[in-house]
Structures are given as C-alpha cells and as structure tokens.
Prior knowledge:
With 316 residues, this protein is mainly β. The chain is built from three helices and 14 strands. The model is unreliable at 1-22, 38-52 and 215-221 (pLDDT under 50).
Amino acid sequence: MVAMDTKLELNSGGMFPKPLRINLKYVLTVWCYLIMSVAFAQDDEFDLLGEEKRSVEKVNYAFKTTKVINLQSLELTDYGVLDFKMMHRFGAINLGPIEAFGLDQASVRFGLEYGITNNLMISMGRSNVNGIKNADAFLKYRILHQNTNNSKPISLLLLAGAQYALINPQTPTIEKPTANQRSSYVFQAIIGRKFTDNFSLEICPSYIFNAFNERWTQIGVDAQNIFALGIGFRQKVTSRTSMNFEYIPILTSKGNVYNSLSLGMDVETGGHVFQFQLTNSAGLNETQFIANTTNQWNNAGIRLGFNLSRVFTIVK
C-alpha cells in the first residue's frame, strides 16, 4: 500500500497541504487503464466448446438518464450516441428577497457524454460554481449488467474522474495555486438493481481526493481524503414521469460541510428528459456536491434546479 501524506502545515501564504508523496496522475492512469482493458472485450459469451450460449435478456432503463439527480445512475450512453447535458442550480431560498429567494444566482454546467461502447462512456464538461470555473472529465464503465434470469442480479459500474479549477478567485491566501492544488479526483462504484418495472435502487461508495480546498484548510479539517456513501432510488409514476431521491452521507471528518440531500422528478418529452429537483447542493460534479455542500434543508438552504438531457445518434 502506498502511503499518502495529508498533513497540513502553515506557510506564509496560508494553510495548504504538503507536496504529495503519491503520483496522482499515475493513480488515475492505472485506474483508467483497468477500465479500458476490459471495456473492449466481446459481449458474446461462449462455452468451453466454443459454442455461443443462449442469450439472456438484459435489464435496461433502471433510470431515465445517466443521472439520478446529482449522482451517476446505472445507465450509460449507448455506443455511438452523444448526450448533451445542461445542469442548473439556483441560489438557496434563505438568501431572501434581495436575491429573489435564490433566483438571482446560478451555478451551471454544460457537458457532453459519448458512448465509446455499450459498456463504456466518456464525459467532459465545464461549470461555474460559486464563482469558480471548473473543467471536468470522467470515464464510466459497466462491469456487470443485471439480467432477467438473475444469474447477474445486480448491475455494477465504476467511475473515475477529475476536476480542474480554471480560475479560483476565492483563494486569497495563495496567490498562484499550482496545477496540483487546483485538482480533485473521484473514484466511485455504482451498485444497483431494478427490482420492478417501477422501482430501482442504487448505492455509490465514493472516494474523493482534494489536493487543495481553501475553506477546509482554514478550519483545520483534513479534506484531502473523503469517503462517502451515496444512496439513490427511482419510483416510476407514469410511462414518462418518475420521482427520484438521493442522499449522500460523508463517512469521514467534514467540518461545516453537510450531507447532500435531493428530491427530484423526471419528465420525458420525446428526445429530451427534464429533471427538476430540490437540493441543498450547488455543486454539479462529484467533487463538488459530495465534498462541498454548505447548506442545510432545515435552515431553508434549498435550491431549485434542473437537468436537461438531449441525445444525438452519431454512429448508427
């Protein structure tokens, strides 16, 4: 096991981590290689005599899109399909009438998701959250696909991603953050099952590495290594609508950061899927909404938001 030094020290510029003893680029490269190495394996199954096994129907459409609300769902973008996603969160209701109860503020992310194979998806996006402009990317790979005869009773997916802060105006104690200090990484397993035609459930064990986080270091909390367990489900209401729920408790020290809690509704209209939600999270990717949720439901720190998904077939 490789040791990682997460101790914080006081420098003249402020509080920030020591240089890392682990090559994060190497860790991310190995993780992605493991995903890619099996992503292009043949989907057909063969017995020892080389004869193709009888096909078993796969269970699909556990969720409407690749998102539950904030969390990644059990779904992937199909091979050759491009999914354009826009995510929007208004400000918190408790900002009061001077901010139109949050409607004067906004966090936005635009992203593209593309199916490299039916079991592997890549995504890239750009967001502006609380004045910090970010670029992010991730790979999402399905290892197991639930089927109808229960020889594979669950679906299992892996996600590896990174975020890079392009501009960080809210870091006054560091004049020029390094590339490492601007970066965060997420590794996640997505485990779930479609129990009935109407109900699906998933859990998401998650690990986030924050190379630098101004607010966390100011309060003396080790925010470099964060473990969380996301829980999400979907209850179908009609053929085109469903109700969603997700909760993401942080399992490690979290200071004044709160667990993300969201309620949502999906509405499908032709090639579009609209997801409306109420959430206490402003962040729009895993390193944001898991590790940097600063509002609570019980003090009206609720935000109105929506996700919009539109798919285009690039390769037939």
